[in-house]
Fold this sequence. Notes:
The complex is a heterodimer of chains A (578) and B (88).
Chain A (H helix, E strand, L loop, with lengths): L6 H14 L2 H20 L6 E6 L3 E7 L2 H21 L5 H19 L3 H20 L4 H30 L15 H13 L7 H6 L7 H5 L3 H12 L5 H19 L3 H22 L2 H32 L10 H4 L1 H15 L5 H15 L3 H28 L14 H19 L2 H4 L14 H20 L10 E2 L4 H41 L25 H22 L1
Antiparallel strand pairs in A: 1-2
Chain B lengths: L7 H24 L16 H25 E2 L14
Amino acid sequence: MFNNFHPGFILILVGFLACVLTPKLRKMMLACGPFLALIAVFNITPGTVENFTFLEDWTSHYMYVDKLSWIFAFVFCLMGCIGGIFSCHNKSPLEALCSMGYAGASVCVAFAHDWITFLFFWELMAATSLFLVWNDPRPTSRGAGTRYILMHTLSGNFILFGVIMKLVSGDYLVHNLVSGPHDIAFWSILAGVCINSAVVPLHAWLVDAYPSATITGSVFMSSYTTKVAVYALLRIFGGTELLIGAGVLMALYGALYAVMENDMLKLLSYHIVSQVGYMVAGAGIGTVMSMNGATAHAFSDILFKSLLFMCCNAIIYATGVRKINQLGGMAKRYKCVFICFVVGAFSISGIPLFNGFISKTMTIFAAGLGGYMWVSTLLELASVGTLLSICFKMMYFIFLAPDKGVAPEQRPIPSNMKVAMIMGAICCTVFGTFPQLLYQYLPFGEVVYEPYTLARISAMFQMTFMALIPFLMFLPRMEPHTAMSLDTDWFYRRPLKSLFRGISNLFISSCHSLGHAWEIGVHQFMNVCNNPMELLDARPFNARKHYNPDNYRTSIADTIMIILTTLFICIFYFRTIG
Amino acid sequence: MIDLISEKSKRYKFIIGSFVLALAFLAISFACGVYTNPAHEILERPFAIFIFGFIGCWVLIILAKIIMTPLLQRDEDYYQKGDDDQDV
């Protein structure tokens, strides 16, 4: 029934329908519609190609399915299903449209085979996700959304420039550019993709915008933008060595900032940077195992990161509190959320039986196998950081520590949110327990990696329990403070603010000056209209006296003189003639 | 709920418990004749991952909480200071 239906278009259509339907039907549409896209993905086989010709001779290769695009489209649609259920209680039609449009655009990027189609849906992703930030009523969201779209416009423009260069050279299709010339088009497209991948130091938009999005919007945002960029890195830049260092830096940077952070969603956003670092490093190494590891980790990350976002957003929804140091005792109050959070935390930390274990260890192993010992060691260190900030810090201070009593329940968590969290937790556990479910679909050749060996399981537990000891020893000082951490956006937020204010002031004063000049011009024009003789005045305008009609009036004596003279002439004429 | 901050004795119990569990997994590794990461020259050595977890965690705590926190943390309204509408 759904043969060769584009799943991305189905998701976009679901968004449009959800936008125009009544609230009750919208709820059903959001909960059930994305499953049609999932069915459509299952009905597409690698090798499927669909084109659409328009503008006489230009063809859009809007659906090119290979193993890489298929696995990403599958997980995007799966996340669309979970996200649709999580957000179906939403009353905002715009948010429904944007969240599904965003998911659909991400699938379309994965299937796009020509540069123009790729770029079009890349921009559509940015445009739709922007409204997930702006739809939040907090005043800070407006500023965050503006900065978000500025960065994504920059990313889009870099890619546009590279795409134009590619089209000029007759290169129409998206393919791996590493073997080709490393020209300006290569670097331009790489820069654009790196911004979306949140490569440090171009990552600050992510930590700024994701926590500022709506409660359901941030769940979608955590899953798509960076993973689509990872897809682009794997397809276009797989094997670029520069990415290895960038990936390691991201993994460590995100983990360190997460240890300091107090805002739940900001902490998770830093962990997006950290986990995407593994994928970027895997793409940079470029071996079959590292590329498969990066793909598997992107797949796993979408599931466990969205699960963690859902859990934290459920608590924010119920209590209205975002700060870790104001929470505590949530395990007792929200048992379902706690269990799902434990699954998400164990997954992201790479604990056996959860999906992070089957993907993260593969990437680290591939780095070691590829001869990058320092990369492997530093990625291992970053995974200790993940344990520290999510598995220990968040779990203790949010759920297990005594309740501080400052976060009373304002409203109950809707059942659809719980269902979505349970679905996410089941996915994390199933894919973690049965790795072949995922490994059979990995696109870069046969997977020879076996995660469940005694050595790896034992190593993971040794590392976990030994890392727990410093955390417990340092526990009284581990509680985060009410503060914000300066990040690389410090370099442009304040200077840009001053620049924008300066430009605004310049425009305002220019308008005032122009307004004054206009006023003088009008006045002079009126003078000239009143007395065109002024045009003949040789003096410059400034030196002329203001127009005074009295200066040009004749005196009453002249009039009397004329009348008297005329009278005397008449008397004289009539007396002489008479 | 577990108050590990004020109840020191409970915290020490957890520390000892963690250490014992880590040792148990190390013993399992030795008993089965396998070490840790077989593709890694450093981490494949005996005790390597055992010590790595402990030292790695301390390194991160020192870097993040002792060095970076005083350097990089500011008031929450740092970027809003001086704004009329809190909108930047």
